[in-house]
């Protein structure tokens, strides 16, 4: 068997020849000079396309914004398994700071998203639960929607969160949750619904084969489950109504407090005005007494 030995020097020379041939192929008029090689081999920036021109949302805070200082779950992406019926997701914010914080949540589309509560307070060590509901009847596009969460320190006890957040408020922490919609859930739900429809039929067939006593028990259990489901739905509606009523009460309380403050200010002004009038009367009495003394002294001098 013959063995061909190739020295490293021959490899180096072959590489030089190959590089020379590549440079000659790239150039129109022979091998490239070092300066032309740099210009020829330097890649040019690609032109922007329709996909590159579209800005995709990025989770977290943007450059120049204060980072989010509390704990949030989920922290980057909000995965929503889309359905044509309303889908509910929970976001938890834990106040890991030593001071009381107020938060505010904004979304990209109020028509398809509902946030409860959108504003609120969190005491140190406590956790706020935010319910996000997607009501879109069609599957939204990905890389388009996000939720922006802001927070700042607040020691206000009399004001509501809506009153605390003004146009002049400066958040001390910002983060963003990018919404990701999972496709194909509708088909899965249809299959599940078909299975769910088949299961009651099978159970009904089994119930028919059972004795009368067992049939009654199974029907009673089904009625109990339906009642529990109805109770759960009613409780959710009651909770939403309670939150709305609480916000309304707080707004009314703040209005009443403002009215009382105005009344107190008016009383203070009246009291100050009365005090000034009393001082004037006292000064007038002093002047009268002084004039009376002078008159008496003049009479004594004449006598």
From TrEMBL:
Compositional bias ranges of the Basic and acidic residues kind: 185-288
Record Pfam families: Motile_Sperm
Keyword Cytoplasm included in the entry's annotation: yes
Biological role stated in the UniProt entry: Central component in molecular interactions underlying sperm crawling. Forms an extensive filament system that extends from sperm villipoda, along the leading edge of the pseudopod.
Protein name stated in the entry: Major sperm protein
Residues in coiled coil: none
Entry-linked InterPro entries: Ig-like_fold (IPR013783), MSP_dom (IPR000535), PapD-like_sf (IPR008962)
UniProt keyword annotations, A-Z: Cytoplasm, Cytoskeleton
Presence of the UniProt keyword Cytoplasm in the record: yes
Organism expressing this protein natively: Mesorhabditis belari
UniProt region (Disordered), positions on chain: 24-67, 176-303
Boundaries of every MSP domain copy: 69-183
Source species, domain of life: Eukaryota
Biased composition range(s): Polar residues: 44-55
